[in-house]
Amino acid sequence: MIHNTLKPYTHIRYAAFLIVVITVFHFLVTAQFHGVHWIHILLAGAYLIPVLVGAVAYGRAGGLLAALIVGGLYLAHLLWSWRNSPMANPDQFAWLAIYPIVGLVTGSLVQESRARHREHEAFVEQSRHTELINGITGLLTAVEVRDTETVAHSHRVAELAKKIGKELGFDEQTISNLFLASLVHDIGKMGIPDAILFHHGRLDDKQMSAMREHVELAVTMLLEIPQTEDIARLVAQHHESPDGSGYPHGLKADQIDPAAAVLRVADVYAALTEDRVYHGAMTSQEALEAMGKLDGVQLDTAAFAVLKRIIHT
Ligand SMILES: [Fe+2]
Fold first, then answer.
1. CA distance 70 to 187
2. Looking at the structure, do residues 34 and 81 belong to the same domain, yes or no?
3. Computed over its alpha carbons, how large is the radius of gyration of the chain?
């Protein structure tokens, strides 16, 4: 079916109304008086309007169906109103061929034009997506020059987050946003001084608050790339906790995007199972046990339950 911007059935109602009005006039105008012959010709031509409406609304099928309906009614009119002079006007019968031809040709043109429009839309969408991916790849490359560990971590988080998102039944667009957000969730660390980013041991309060700025820095960088609003929203929430103790805004569980909650769970698991300057890598089991203590408090329960399932299988 061809989509259009009018409400469903608007075209059908419009075509039906025209067919009824034109048919009534056909039978009302006398066939006996030669002076009104031009009105019959006009009404025969007017039947083309519902045929065009059908073709514009539903393509070839709509044009053909409308042509069959008006053709049937016109034939009935010819056989009834002109019954005493069969074939008196053979040109009238030509309309029975003209209606389906016009319906099919117009329907084909409409379908062709809509197919081209869809192709163009798909091309524009694809170009936007390529622009987005190029922007994100550029940001990652810039991070990698300084901090290869963060990029390797982000790739692991992205793969894991995607698996959890799929298990949770997220739609394709959300999974794509989640994957890209996971890749760039820590790009803000580019703006963190070396003394803090590569610090050995615990960070003091001042260093910690500087480190936390990586979230807002990442959002600022991302929003420089067109079409990243949804991805930036997930990145903005990747350190928020269900109990409201996270940062930067202290959002509560119901204010956190479910995809951001997945990103957080994948991020924490990946971080715990990697060697860091301030801790050695935990085993999967140790990481899940440590995370179990944060379940529902700092980690989303649904996302964590899926993580456990994935790791155990
Ligand atoms: Fe982070």
1. 65
2. yes
3. 34
Residue 1 has pLDDT above 50, yes or no: no
Mean of pLDDT values over 197-219: 90
Single pTM value for the model: 0.69
Q: How far, in Å, from the CA of 215 to the mean position of ligand 1?
A: 6
Query: What is the tally of helices (H) and strands (E) in the chain?
Result: 12, 0
* Total tally of structural domains belonging to the chain: 2
Q: Is 293 a catalytic residue?
A: no
281 torsion bin: left (phi>0), alpha (psi -120 to 50), beta (else) = beta
> Which member of 162, 163, 166, 189 is catalytic?
189
Q: Which amino acid, one-letter code, is at 179?
A: F
The token pair at 204 is 């003091």
Each residue's pLDDT tens digit, 74-126: 999 888 887 776 556 677 888 999 999 999 999 999 999 999 999 999 999 99
Distance 150 CA to ligand 1 centre (A): 10
Same domain, yes or no, for 39 and 115?
yes
